[in-house]
Amino acid sequence: MCTFITVFLPSALPHDVAAAVFTRSGRRLFAHQSPSLQAATGPGWRQWLSATHCDCGTALASASAEAAWKGDAERWRRKGWGEAKIARALAEQLARHMQDQQVRRDEALGDASQWLQRIDALLQAGAARVGLLVRDYDGSVSARQPKPPECRWSRPRLAAADLMALAPGTLHWIERS
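RE: above sequence
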């Protein structure tokens, strides 16, 4: 299973303008045609994928994917460790886990901030709104998909943390005003 980000842009927005926005930030746009998604958005919208292979590991819609911490206490008890030693080891293990999670959150915040910059540039280039769909696919990205629920955001009220908390499988429309 892989995650893909589908970007929906108005057909009237020239491809070279949209592509330049993504190229400046180290990404590219790839034409995508899903009849079921086209039916969901209606005419006047073009679909683009933001990666050639997949977007696994993206910050978008990642807030709910934070890894749970599981200590090794039971394994250490089976090895015969004492409770005081286990408590010290668990404290060290939890501290490392928290530090790793903070690094992941910081990286995700940077990625989400880049997405905000792309959205801003697309809106400034003439798009009245931009659509984002973050979805996990178990097969072909072009396979028939159910119509996604929709959500609308006003760009001035949208923060990087909001992008990280997007509901996966929902078509999020980000509007200029």
